[in-house]
Amino acid sequence: MGSSAMSMRFTAKARRGMVAMALAVGLAVGVAGCGGGDTDDKKPEASASVSKSRSSQASPQEGQSAQPLAELRGPEGLTLKVLSAQRDSGGFVTINAQLKNDSGKDAVLSSQLTGNETEIMKNGQSFGGATLVDTKAKKRYYVLRDTDGRPLTTVGVQSVKAGDTVPIFMQFPAPPTGTAEVDFQLPTFSSAPIKISG
What ranges does the record give for the region Disordered, renumbered to this chain (predicted)? Predict the structure, then answer.
């Protein structure tokens, strides 16, 4: 009886840890501007192969920086370049992008980017309004959120200075493995098809 209570406690703890980890990994990935694989579920003994698999992922990312998956035009001279859409083993798709202000003046981001869901809106400015649309299966995927309702995206970007580029990330539930292409949509920006890798 004691052991089942312990395992329940452990499971709840692990679940909280995973959400925090997903958030931390997402933030780190957003800052670095590249989408590494999630190798945390591998056993410690496999540390040599973990480092190998991380280094082998450098080559596709080099290609991605040269050629973005998509370029979306927005208001006030803003452009969103989608650099990668990486599926991971945990059932997520992480999108890494760069938001650039090509105009000669500072651009204030629209509150529409946050979306209109009350739970996400109360957490401040974010990219929680982004969606992935699988047109063949007629399904729409919304940005994931943690147990406190915070969207798993870059938050707190209010404006982009003239000529500046800001790295951002967004995490979505992964479409079925057979789905390799979806439409990426962000309010006030044009939409574009993107290919999911992994």
Answer: 36-72
**What is the C-alpha to C-alpha distance for residues 198 and 145, in angstroms, rounded to an integer?**
22
Q: Is residue 104 part of a domain?
A: yes
Domain of 69, in residue numbers: 2-36+46-195
What average pLDDT does the structure give for the chain?
Answer: 78
Number of domains in the chain: 1
Q: Which among 46, 47, 38, 67 is positioned nearest to 198, based on CA atoms?
A: 38
CATH code of 170's domain: 2.60.40.10
DSSP characters over 141-156: EEPPB-TTS-BSB-B-
Q: Using a cut of 0.70, tell me whether the model's pTM lies above it.
A: no
The amino acid sitting at 57 is Q
Contact 38, 90 (CB under 8 A): yes
DSSP-based three-state secondary structure for 52 = helix
3-state secondary structure of 50: helix
